[in-house]
Design brief:
By secondary structure, the protein is mainly α. It has one domain: Growth Hormone, Chain: A (Up-down Bundle). The chain is built from 17 helices and no strands. It is globular and about 50 Å long.
Length: about 400
């Protein structure tokens, strides 16, 4: 069988788009951990670092759907360049506020503005794939590939920001993140051939995508996955610190992403006969079960394979969620739908990082992993109860190529 990913990448103008998006989304995996490391190094508190990262995640959650709706209405390039200008300015202010000891509220304010203006490259490239491949069997593969790229980003990003922040100057991790965001976003905005047109005038003032009940179920899933990632980001750093190996924290986070990436590659290459909604439920149940051992392990080298194993269910959960969102919402609201899931993830990261940070400071790193288990279980129950809301309309089921 031909490689389905190579087939997708042969789409005209796809390679430059994918390369630019990879650079532009690297900061997504660096901002939260970089903020925690920066604040903790100056204040000594993981809780404060988690709180600052949570503020950025919350504001990202609030602004995400608004940015997505604007991109649907006014085209991606115009919105992306405007958002990038705010992001760079706010990021510089955040660095100075922490490094130079400005009043604490200025750090929170700058972190909030930076979070609200993180360039939404990951959502935008999914919309571009939808525009290029809608209605073909290649679209699920393209969305799966994007989930795999996300996971690869979460392998490279944490290792890079941890190394830069601990081996070099404390601020160098975040400076690198802001630089990559700028370069990647500018390159992505320059890809005019793949940019989808704005929504037709009659669709621009329609109801929000979140009014679709199935998308609300997926919102819960996104929040749960975000909570898991936010929790593990804090708890794994603290766990490595407790073991006297703080510089290995990036390796633990990378192991989680590696497991997810490998699973995502296999998930996207399979021609599934199981309904999307049932695949999502199975992935969430598996995620719940695989997070339990993290509560019990007390050796860093034993933790590594268990973290890798826990990551196996993360990417399939996200792939299924984004694929369902694409078929459950009207075409003119796809960007908004994807950003709602991204918003949910950001909100989940905020809650997970904040709660886990408090638990880590008061009880210990292993106890913090309980937040991830509870989040996964709640998502699984929600999807189980909302199965009828996730039924894919018959007209959206891709037709196999041989039947065309």
């Amino acid at each position: 069988m031909p490689n389905p990913y190579l087939h997708v990448l042969r789409t005209p103008h796809a390679l430059p788009m994918v390369a630019a998006a990879f650079i532009g989304r690297l900061p997504l995996s660096m901002m939260g951990l970089g903020s925690v490391l920066l604040v903790q190094s100056y204040t000594g508190s993981y809780a404060l670092g988690g709180a600052v990262a949570a503020v950025g995640a919350v504001t990202s959650a609030v602004s995400g759907p608004v940015i997505g709706r604007l991109a649907d209405t006014h085209a991606q390039r115009r919105v992306l360049l405007s958002v990038l200008a705010v992001f760079v300015t706010a990021g510089a202010a955040f660095l100075w506020s922490v490094r130079d000891g400005w009043p604490l509220w200025t750090a929170f304010l700058a972190a909030g503005l930076a979070g609200a203006s993180i360039p939404p490259v990951a959502s935008m490239i999914r919309v571009r794939w939808t525009h290029l491949l809608r209605g073909t069997p290649s679209l699920p593969t393209a969305l799966a590939m994007e989930a795999v790229v996300d996971e690869f980003v979460f392998i490279v990003g944490p290792v890079l920001v941890t190394f830069l922040s601990t081996a070099g100057h404390t601020t160098s991790g975040l400076v690198t993140a802001f630089t990559l965001a700028t370069v990647g976003s500018l390159l992505f905005a320059a890809q005019r051939h793949t940019e989808p047109p704005p929504a037709e005038h009659e669709h621009r003032n329609g109801p929000s995508a979140i009014r679709i009940r199935g998308l609300r179920v997926l919102f819960v899933v996104g929040a749960a996955v975000g909570a898991i990632l936010g929790t593990l980001e804090i708890a794994l750093v603290a766990f490595a610190d407790e073991q006297g190996a703080r510089t290995l924290s990036g390796l633990l986070i990378a192991a989680l992403a590696a497991g997810s990436m490998v699973a995502g590659i296999g998930w996207g290459a399979v021609h599934w006969r199981v309904a999307l909604r049932r695949r999502l439920l199975g992935a969430l149940v598996l995620l719940t079960l695989l997070s339990v051992p993290l509560l019990l392990v007390h050796d860093i080298w034993l933790m590594l394979p268990f973290v890798l194993l826990a990551g196996v269910a993360v990417s399939p959960s996200l792939i299924s969620s984004f694929t369902l969102a694409e078929v459950l919402v009207p075409r003119a609201a796809v960007t908004e739908a994807f950003t709602w899931i991204g918003t949910a993830m950001a909100l989940g990261v905020a809650v997970g990082a904040s709660v886990a940070g408090k638990i880590v400071d008061t009880v210990g790193a292993n106890a913090g992993f309980l937040v991830a288990t509870v989040a996964a279980a709640l998502a699984a129950v929600t999807v189980a109860l909302g199965q009828r809301l996730l039924v894919v309309p018959a007209e959206h089921v891709p037709v196999p190529a041989l039947a065309r």
